[in-house]
Design a protein that fits this description.
The structure holds 2 protein chains of 2 kinds. Helix content of chain A is about 0%, strand content about 50%. Chain A is mostly beta strands. By secondary structure, chain B is an all-beta fold. In chain B, a hairpin with a 4-residue loop joins strand 8 and strand 9. The radius of gyration of chain B is 13 Å and the shape is globular. Classes of the chains: A mainly beta, B mainly beta.
């Protein structure tokens, strides 16, 4: 199992450019999520999905779009990048059970994004 | 508003000393509770979790945490710190019946040789 994979590892964008951060998992997890990590602010939830075709907003969704067409993939799109979106982005997945072993979130290695 | 507080931004301990990292949460009911560790440039790794039952939970790498309902706390402890424990530690909660995880702002641990 590769676990949760993210591409690219690093990206530099100019203001106004668009891009998609890729996230994939091979654990058949129904739940997937995107976080951004900024110094002194911990991880903040951007969007999440509880299954294919189902997405919802997290704490900081503005400026980001997501879709979930398959169980495995959960891409994050920046339509018009802004310097405030400079951050490290983490994707995570978990199985949906409400208790026991299934609740652990598995994290990808992160994507470091800089917007100039 | 629901929140998770890690009051210590930085902690420095000597190798071999004991460690306690604090975490407090504000929810109406007991949520699911987690501690994660992040080494520099890496993703997050789960140390331990609490859902119910015994309030003292054991995790990986010799860590343990104690849930105290009366104090709304879930503090992480280790009896003897190793230099390799230097990292950032995050407390997280997930309210029962939801999929949203809320993370604290993290505590960065430095270990002196």
């Amino acid at each position: 199992n590769a676990g949760v994979t993210q591409t690219p590892k690093f990206q530099v964008l100019k203001t106004g450019q668009s891009m998609t951060l890729q996230c994939a998992q091979d654990m058949n997890h129904e739940y997937m999520s995107w976080y951004r990590q900024d110094p002194g602010m911990g991880l903040r939830l951007i969007h999440y999905s509880v299954g294919a075709g189902i997405t919802d907003q997290g704490e900081v969704p503005n400026g980001y779009n997501v879709s979930r067409s398959t169980t495995e993939d959960f891409p994050l799109r920046l339509l018009s990048a802004a310097p405030s979106q400079t951050s490290v982005y983490f994707c995570a997945s978990s199985s949906p059970s409400w208790g026991g072993v299934g609740n652990e979130q598995f994290f990808g290695p992160g994507t470091r994004l800089t917007v100039l | 508003a629901q929140s998770v507080t890690q009051p210590d931004i930085h902690i420095t301990v000597s190798e071999g000393a004991s460690l306690e990292l604090r975490c407090n949460y504000s929810y109406g009911a007991t949520p699911y509770l987690f501690w994660y560790v992040q080494s520099p440039g890496q993703g997050l790794q789960l140390l331990l979790k609490y859902f119910s039952g015994d309030t003292l939970v054991q995790g990986i790498k010799g860590f343990e945490a104690e849930f105290k309902r009366s104090q709304s706390s879930f503090n992480l402890r280790k009896p003897s710190v190793h230099w390799s424990d230097a990292a950032e530690y995050f407390c997280a909660v997930r309210k029962m019946g939801t999929y949203k995880y809320i993370f604290g702002t993290g505590t960065r641990l430095k270990v002196l040789a």
